[in-house]
Amino acid sequence: MRSDREELPEGFTKEEADLAEIREYELQQRQSAVARGPAPGPGCQQYWPSDKWVCSAIRDKYNSLGAQFSFLLWPTSDELTSPDGHGKFNTFQNGPIYWSAAGGAHPVVNSILNRWGVHQYEMGWLGYPTTDEIVHADGIGRRQEFQGGAIYVSLPNAIGSAVGGAIRDKWNTVGAETPGSLLGYPLSDEIVLPDGQGRMNRFERGVIYWSPTTGAHPVTGGILEVWASRAYEAGTHGYPTSDEYDADGGRRQNFQNGSIDWNPNWDMTVIPGQPPTTPPSGPQSRQTVDNVSCTMWARQPYLYHAPGATFDHVEAVGGAYCIGVPDIWNITVKLWEDVSGNGHYDLLDTYTSSVPPSLQSEEYTAEIAGCNPNAWYHTEVHAEGFHGNWDEDTINSDDYQLC
User: Fold this and answer.
1) Quick one: average pLDDT of 283-308?
2) Tell me: the pLDDT tens digits for 124-173?
3) How far out from the chain centre does Cα 71 lie?
4) Is residue 221 within 8 Å of 390, Cβ to Cβ?
5) Residue 255 above 70 pLDDT?
6) Quick check: 392 and 338 in contact, CB under 8 A?
7) Distance between CA atoms of 373 and 382, rounded to whole angstroms?
8) Is the separation of the CB atoms in 75 and 54 below 8 Å?
9) Beta-strand (E) ranges in 44-156?
């Protein structure tokens, strides 16, 4: 037997190799003019020491890649018919080759094979492969085309993502994954949204949302941050109805229920300060050319005894006011206690508000029941907001003994 004369590749036993040699002879006999019984056809070939037959277009593709000396290595199945009754495939040690009349024969391997499997292989929405794997010139990613879309693999997303339909069409119009494009590589498969109607894909630098009534539109940057803070398509704005465009010296995007503006010159500035005695003057809403300026303060903790209460309360009060209205706003007031007097503080209570103060003094309180005569207390206030850029600051009152 041939196995007695030649060294076997790793993974094959002598018994398997001998069986392969017997089957190879069977193949030759069936392809001869005097063969009896069903013949696999003249286009089949066997690759010893595998006993599997590879035929027709799949054989041609396999041979063009280097056959058993390619990345696929040896065949592990005969030619099989796909569940739809039309396509064919063979499996190999490192992946299959699939053939269809529409797409031809193509290998599918590694991350792309795994992601294709998530979507039910040729029976899913992607259908059969129509190209081999394509390596991109950027050295970052690669893709494979299928009947219904493509699977992209990249350094930021090694497991791969499938993109297709109207979302892929829109992505292509804004540069797809090419260097300097609006969105970059996909980071997610197409996701069905909670309303059961819309779809979306995430990308390196933004998202594309689609719905039957609004079409597909990318959302990025500051507008995406504001829209996300308002619950995306499930919030008051709904789905995007336009791409981003120039407006009033900045950028604007239309949604089903209004628009969101962004300007790189807008800034949410947080300034430590003291509570005003009267509300400051200024615009009552954001204007295109105006910054938003917010002043914050931390008052000295104090004791408060409510009528009928059993204990005194230690209260920490902080506040802020803004000239203009931030797009996103959070202010947190914390009450701290230092029992030892050596700067080791315990957090007693926290209060957080997300309501943006505007044109008036807004104060918030953290408190604890009871007072420790040996403790020092202080108030911490942290404010953060978004208005074209993120800004934040933290201030603390002095330490005080209160009882």
Assistant:
1) 60
2) 999 999 999 999 999 999 999 999 999 999 998 999 999 999 999 999 99
3) 31
4) no
5) yes
6) no
7) 27
8) yes
9) 44-46, 53-55, 80-81, 88-92, 95-100, 104-107, 134-135, 141-146, 149-154
Residue (of 139, 86, 89) closest to 113 by Cα position: 89
3-state SS class at 394 = strand
CB within 8 A of 64, min separation 6: which ones? none
The DSSP annotation for 333-375 comes to EEEEEESSSSS--EEEEEEEE-SPP-SS-EEEEEEEES--TT-
- Strand order across the beta sheet in which 215-219 lies: 191-192, 199-203, 206-211, 215-219
More confident residue, 62 or 15: 62
User: What is the C-alpha to C-alpha distance for residues 166 and 185, in angstroms, rounded to an integer?
Assistant: 16
* 374 pLDDT higher than 80: yes
Residue among 239, 236, 261 at smallest CA distance from 250: 261
Which tokens in the block code for residue 40?
């696999």
| Closest C-alpha to 280, from 308, 252, 321 | 321
Look at 125-139, 247-261, 281-295, 353-367 and tell me which has the smallest mean pLDDT. 281-295
Amino acid at the residue 304: Y
Alpha helices in 106-220 (DSSP H): 110-118, 165-173
d(CA 53, CA 44): 6
Question: Among candidates 261, 229, 270, which has minimal Cα distance to 354?
Answer: 229
Given a contact cutoff of 8 angstroms between Cβ atoms, the answer to whether 129 and 113 are in contact is: no
Give the number of other CB atoms < 10 A from CB of residue 105. 23
| pTM for this model (two decimals) | 0.62
Name the DSSP letter for residue 194.
T
Quick check: 317 and 350 in contact, CB under 8 A?
no
pLDDT digits 0-9 by tens, 93-131: 999 999 999 999 999 999 999 999 999 999 999 999 999
CA dihedral of residues 351, 352, 357, 363 (deg, nearest 10): 10
Residue extent(s) of CATH 2.60.40 domains in the chain:
268-396
Structurally, at CATH architecture level, domain 268-396 sits in Sandwich (2.60)
In tens, the pLDDT along 355-370 reads: 766 545 578 888 888 8
Structure tokens at 172: 């292509």
Q: How far apart are CA 357 and CA 321, in angstroms?
A: 5
CA distance 295 to 269: 8
The predicted pLDDT at position 236 comes to 78
